[in-house]
Amino acid sequence: MSELDKQAPIPKTAEEMQRMRRGRNLALLGIIVGLVVLFYVLTLVKVGGASS
Amino acid sequence: MSVTSDHQIASPTDGFSGPSVGDFWALLKPRVMSLVIFTGFAGMYLAPGSLHPLVFAVSLFAIAAGAGASGAINQWYDRDIDAVMTRTKNRPIPAGVMIPAEALTMGLVISALSVLLLGLAANWLAAGLLAFTIFFYAVIYTIWLKRSTPQNIVIGGAAGALPPLIGWAAVTGGISIEPLLLFGIIFIWTPPHFWALALVKNDDYKAAGVPMLPVVAGHDETRKQILIYALILAPLAVVPSFIGMASWIYGGFASVAGAIFVAMSWRIWASKSNVLAMRLFAYSILYLFLIFLALVLDQFVAGMVL
Description:
By secondary structure, chain A is mainly alpha-helical. Chain A has two helices and no strands. Chain B is an all-alpha fold. Helix content of chain B is about 75%, strand content about 0%. The N and C termini of chain B lie far apart (about 55 Å). Classes of the chains: A mainly alpha, B mainly alpha. Chains A and B meet through helix 2 of A and helix 3 and helix 5 of B.
């Protein structure tokens, strides 16, 4: 790994940093909620299929 | 072979605005993913048996996610050569908007999640095949073969050929001759597809130190190899009609599509020029899409008639 690889990105301003972080956090939240729903529904289908 | 010392990746501090959601999306190589989704779908659709529509959709999603994850690991490892090649220098890492560790983390997390999801949704044979595909693409192809041999995309092509096999295994829980044939078609299709691109992008690959066939063996040899592979591919894609997997209508269609592939490869070989290489590259994508679409439609129509 080069020095560049270890270097953390430095945003231009604090507002920009907050905006970036917020956008990524929201995307991550959406993915996690989506996965929770997906696993829940998948379980219903698998359990339903097994019992029928 | 490394080119990192000669070519700097853009500094993340130069006008840095951070990776957007779109950059993370680009890391998954969405265009490659779309072909994986399509061939994976074909494998699932052509397989005997049925899955609950949700399980079907989730399985296909997991296959696509696994392909995307291996694309992210590929972009993490290839950041040095991506920075050199015009085709790839705007990818998130060489463009300086994402630190490499982010890409690697994302690739590893999605890899694990996709394998787990496919195992839970379908079965563990399919999940194991997906894990093997990710490993093969990220480690065997990207880290080992790509920089060490002109046979890189020949052997590495196995990773891109596995999605229909995974799809078939997801539905049936097993593997048989039919999905192996689908694997074979993509496997033989891959070298002429990439070598047509490599003929045009030869300077890029040479600058990056990637030993693609035109760089190592020259353009004449590459054009000959493209023709040889096309001559194997064209009849191979007709075989589904001989093993009861598709009708003779499909066979006729595959023969015509294959003949065009061979004719274009022949013209490139005979003309000793790369003028038509980009056209062959574009046609090869259309060809694979049409072959798999024809197989799916053939089965769909057969199902309607019976």
